Amino acid sequence: MSEADKIVEFVYEVGQLKRLPRAGWLFAGVQNPESVAAHSFRVGVLAYAIAVQEGANPDRAATLGLFHDVPEARIGDIPYVGKLYLDVKVPPEEVARDQVKNLPAPLAAHIEALVAEHESAKGDDHTPEARCSRDADKLELLLQAREYQAAGVTKMERFIQTMQGSVVTDTGKALMDSALRIVPSEWWEAFGRR
User: Fold this and answer.
1) DSSP structure class, residue 35
2) Taking a C-beta distance cutoff of 8 angstroms, is the pair 119, 92 a contact?
3) Which of 1, 76, 139, 140 could form a disulfide with 5 if both were Cys (CB 3.0 to 4.6 A apart)?
4) Which residue ranges does the record assign to the HD/PDEase domain (predicted)?
């Protein structure tokens, strides 16, 4: 099997994230929730913006955000309520290692490092880029909850409240404050006032 074949197989696997719904939204009553891939896209954009403002490497932060949920192609998106009952013995870093084991070694090493670096933000030993990516992950959930709330889904306050305490960067906190104040449709409603 050629290196190109191995990369294409990996990309097909990652494509599963386009069809994998974010499970927590199903519990909240969202009929057609965003996919893990849609979530990861906006995490990457947010991580880039936060990193620019924080003086971190925006390209690295965005890449961390883009790849952070790649292991979910294999393990699924386990909602918080499920994590209370499951004893997940394999951390995302190990899942990623198994996912990329057939890729060309340099590419595999890069992807493994990305997932590990994002996950490091859960502890004390992390890079500024991991902190930006982690904040972006939390902020994206808050933004999505605000969007579902604006669309009439009533059980969003819990999601919004729990994310507020998990954002740590100054930029992330400022973005969170704005997200709580600005209605999701403001960006396009402003066109009508021109």
Assistant:
1) B
2) yes
3) 1
4) 32-151
139, two tokens: 């902020």
- Per the CB < 8 A criterion, the answer to whether 99 and 71 are in contact is yes
What single letter denotes the amino acid at residue 168?
A: V
* DSSP E strands, the chain: none
pLDDT tens, residue order, the chain (194 aa): 999 999 999 999 999 999 999 999 998 999 999 999 999 999 999 999 999 999 999 999 999 999 999 999 999 888 877 777 877 678 899 999 999 999 999 999 999 999 999 999 887 778 999 999 999 999 999 999 999 999 999 989 999 999 988 999 999 999 999 999 999 999 888 777 76
Q: Give CA–CA dist 75/82, Å, rounded.
A: 12
